[in-house]
Amino acid sequence: MNIRRVSSVAATAFLALVLLGHGATAASSSSGPKLPQLDLATYSSQVFWLVISFVVLYFLLAKLAMPRIAEVLEERQERIEDDLDKAETLKKEAYQVRIEYEKALSAAREKAQDATRHAQEEIAKQSAEVESAAQVKVTVMLEEAEKRIAASKTGAEGTSGDPISSLERSVAQVVVANAVQKLIGVDVTAADIDAAIAATLEERPQ
Hey, where are the domains in the chain? Predict the structure, then answer.
């Protein structure tokens, strides 16, 4: 394509030179030659050598300069196309990496939420089990304390007007307070223990 373009330009320039020389010759024929290149006697030889020069110049351009120019242009075009292909490939890879990153991030977020929810459920379950076990143990200890108090009350009815001796009451209060502290971590007073025992005795059928 480039060789044809140069050839057409050279042909156009040649025709322009021929027309220019013809016009100059016609103009100088009336007043006589003033320049050697415009002399009609040498005009035919000038045209001949002009054609020879044009052919030689065209041959040199077609065989030496134009292939190199075409090669450089072709290499440049190939390099541009290669760069565009690489840019498109990198764009696709970047988009794919972004998609994979978003998927991994979403999966990690869901996994973390599931782990947190599972841990909360396990903690709530264990807390409920510990609380239930502690409640059962406290109930058992209260019943044992009630039995001891009742036994002490029965044994003390014949000897003292007080149904529960101070020593038995103190022992029962200490036992129950220690048990509650170890099981559920709550400090209870002697008044709280007496109130709980009294409430339990009232709820039982006589």
Answer: 2-83, 126-203
Instruction: Give CB contacts under 8 A, 24+ apart, made by 168-171.
Output: 169/194
The residue assigned the tokens 């409920």 is: 128
42: its two tokens = 């040498």
Exposed, middle or buried: residue 145 (CB in 10 Å: 0-12, 13-18, 19+)?
buried
Residues 35-79 have pLDDT tens digits of 666 666 777 787 888 889 889 888 888 888 888 888 899 999 999
Length of the chain, please? 206
The region that residue 185 occupies, defined by phi over 0 for left and psi between -120 and 50 for alpha, beta otherwise, is left
Tell which phi-psi region holds residue 146, choosing left (phi > 0), alpha (psi between -120 and 50) or beta.
alpha
